[in-house]
Amino acid sequence: MIAPGRTLKLAWAVAREERRLMARSRVAVAGLGLLLLLAMVAAVAAWQQRASAAEQRAHHQQQMHDEFAAQPDRHPHRMVHYGHFVFRPLSPLAAFDSGTDAYTGHTLFLEGHRQNSANFSEVRQSSLLLRFGQLLPAFVLQVLAPLLLVFIGHGLLAREREAGTLRVLLAQGLAPGTLVAGKLLALGGVAILMLLPALLALAAMVLFSGAPAALAGALAAAYAGWLLLWVLGVGAVSALCRRSRDALLVLLAAWALSVVVLPRLAAEWASASRPLPTRVESDILLQRELAQLGNSHNAADGRFAAFRQATLARYGVQRVEDLPVNYKGLVAMEGERQTSELFVRQAAASFAQQHAQRAAVQRWAPASPVLALRAVSMALAGTDLPAYQGFMEQAEQHRYTMVQALNRLQAEQMTLQTDRSSRDDRISRTHWQAIAPFEHRSELPAQLLQRAAPAAAVLGAWLAAMAGLLALATRRLARGAP
Predict the structure, then answer these.
(1) What residues have CB less than 8 Å from 426, skipping those under 6 apart?
(2) Burial class (CB in 10 A: 0-12, 13-18, 19+), 343
(3) I want to staple 357 with a disulfide (CB 3.0 to 4.6 A). Which of 47, 158, 270, 399 is the partner?
(4) What letter would DSSP give residue 87?
(5) What is the domain partition of the chain in residue ranges?
(6) Rounded-to-integer distance, Cα 135 and Cα 37, Å
(7) Whole-number mean pLDDT of the chain?
(8) Environment class of residue 230 by beta-carbon count within 10 Å: exposed (0-12), middle (13-18) or buried (19+)?
(9) How far apart are CA 40 and CA 136, in angstroms?
């Protein structure tokens, strides 16, 4: 029995020899160099783009707040229709994985009686090439790094069998497990080099962008696990195939199927099985329901009769003219309450359908581990669907609070008589200045880690399955080298 220290030395010797072979391969050296260059370019470009976008959004947000506060004396309901813009702030880790950010808008106009959708997504403003993937560290590691591992490592063990050296090595007493471990150490070193630019980018995001270290560390672990999955898979297939060419064909087919084909099929299947209504269909449904509500611009609308009676009873008067507050402002508040409840219900239904599509896509993760990795990556980067939903819900809450504050000014700062006069229907501009600006509340790192946990478990199951396949291939080597 060989001592553990001797086994480790033998494994390192095999790894050194394999690294020498890789260094003499023009394909391996050129491919790795190009990938590292591409990864560094992706990290720097994404960093600069994210910093520029974040600065612009912060600048525009402050500019919109200043312009809102600088409006002159006027009727408060005119300010309701003047509205306000809010901009979705970027997550510090969005430079690593932009997730859904490129497909969802980042600018939202807030106004009374309406719930608008976010506009100006990058996909709508850029070329169609953006739909095929952005040059980000996440894209390089998810798609390109496994492909290069396949080209570099497909002959790890198949080459030894094909050349007849496998039988010689085993006959000299080299254990199959030691041989496989040495080969995998060499390929694992290549994977570490591939991961290095991403690790540096994540460290920079923690140091200079304020990204939570726990999330950056979890992202690094997820992508390390992803590359380890391919290292194990490449080693297992190479050990099972008789020829390097066969191993290459099998691994290329596995890469194309799991990384390219199945994710696309999953998205199409989810879209077809759980279709979302079009914008026109949603607007028609919304307008039908809005038509059943009262018109808050008309205080005499009969659909507010019950509200009118309840208001008179609450204040103990018989006529709206005797109310201590402006009845038209109260009607505006009630109308906004009713329409906002409708907006919230419609938005919740829409997001529920989108989450159903998202869950349908994730059901394909047992067949395509890249889907699990993407779910983990987007969740930790704060660029997934729940993160976008959180922004939209916070923006709607701010819109409702702002509009109701303006309606309350109409009810409390104006009388019914002055509200009817075009000369006396203005209040001081200082009231707009008192309205708090929009502040987006980011999720806590613990919440993001919890959301990523189910997909991380699927990725872990894939790692365990690939380790089992490698163990099976190693035992086959032990039974002989055909």
Answers:
(1) 73, 74, 75
(2) buried
(3) 270
(4) E
(5) 4-478
(6) 12
(7) 90
(8) buried
(9) 9
Tokens 């507010």 locate to: 304
The pTM for the full model equals: 0.91
Q: Measured between alpha carbons, how far apart are the two ends of the chain, in Å?
A: 25
* pLDDT value, residue 129: 42
Residues 6+ apart with CB under 8 A from 333: 404, 407, 408, 411
pLDDT digits (tens, 9 = 90+) for 336-356: 999 999 999 999 999 999 999
Backbone angles phi, psi at 126, to 5 degrees: -115, 180
For residues 461 and 468, give the distance between their C-alpha atoms in angstroms, rounded to a whole number: 11
- Two tokens, residue 345: 């219900």
Report, as an integer, the average pLDDT of 385-408.
95
**Is the CB of residue 459 less than 8 Å from the CB of residue 373?**
yes
Q: What is the mean pLDDT of residues 391-400?
A: 95
Q: How many CB atoms lie within 10 A of CB 283?
A: 11
Residue with tokens 């994977």: 191
Q: What is the DSSP letter of 3?
A: -
CA distances from 114 to 131, 284, 333, 336, 354 (A): 31, 14, 14, 9, 21
- Distance CA(197)–CA(43), nearest Å, equals 8
Q: What is the pLDDT of residues 188-213, one digit of tens each?
A: 999 999 999 999 999 999 999 999 99
State the Cα–Cα distance between residues 179 and 197, nearest whole angstrom. Answer: 29
Tell me how far apart the alpha carbons of residues 465 and 297 are, in angstroms, rounded to a whole number.
64
What are the beta bridge partners of residue 107? 87, 119
**Strand order of the sheet with strand 84-87?**
84-87, 107-111, 114-115
Contacts of 263 (CB under 8 A, 6+ apart): 361, 364, 368, 370, 371, 374
* Pairwise CA distance, residues 132 & 125, whole Å: 15
Neighbouring CB atoms inside 10 A of 26's CB total: 7
User: What are the residues whose beta carbons fall under 8 Å from the beta carbon of 55, sequence distance 6 or more?
Assistant: none
